[in-house]
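User: Here's a chain of 237 residues. Predict its fold as tokens.
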Amino acid sequence: MSLRPRVTRPVVTYGLDHDADWRARGVRMTKDGSTCEVLHKGKRALTLRLNVPGRHNVSNAIGALAAGHFLGFDLKRLSRGLSEFRGVGRRLDRLGSAGGVEFVDDYGHHPTEVRVTLSAVAGLWKAGRLIVVFQPHRFSRTKSLAKDFGPAFKGADFVWVTDIYPAGEKPVRGVTSKLILDSLSKSGVKAAAFPGTLELAKQLRPSDVVLTLGAGDVWKVGEDLLRRRRGQSATPI
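Assistant: Prediction complete.
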């Protein structure tokens, strides 16, 4: 906002802040989506209903409305289109529940995504502990951002950290998931190396929310734990 007076082109702001041109009022969240009133320059424009959860998705939708309106599109048609959007795979993806434990999966793999995802999960599902299984993605990213991951996980009750998912990269000497664990420890976040699904399954209790997080194949951990919780056969991971 401090740059706005210096910009000579038209500027349209949006978000959840009170001083934005386009903003939300009365946001109501559920596990399946959200509703809110959209205000344009302080006046009610419409009621927005989304089928994707999370305050960040509300902000994104308002940005889409603002851009569409600026380009001359009809607000009602824009709102209808947004209400029909069902999201994409591995974004706050509810895998299921069993024995009082909720299992959620998300693709988030850098600190900003981690922070936003944990906030969304805590607001939508958290009743007891929020247990995260995090899979670091790429050796290069782990090396560059390790120090930033610790503070990003402060919303978790416990974080299990797997080995790094290489995504085609060759190992880098001295770069392991221990860098993430050290960062978590410095930030006061309880964490340990991932012990495998057999051991983790024994530690879960009713009201827990298990979030698998990462851009690799960590979703398999959530599915395996869910099958075990349901008493189905599963291959240890």
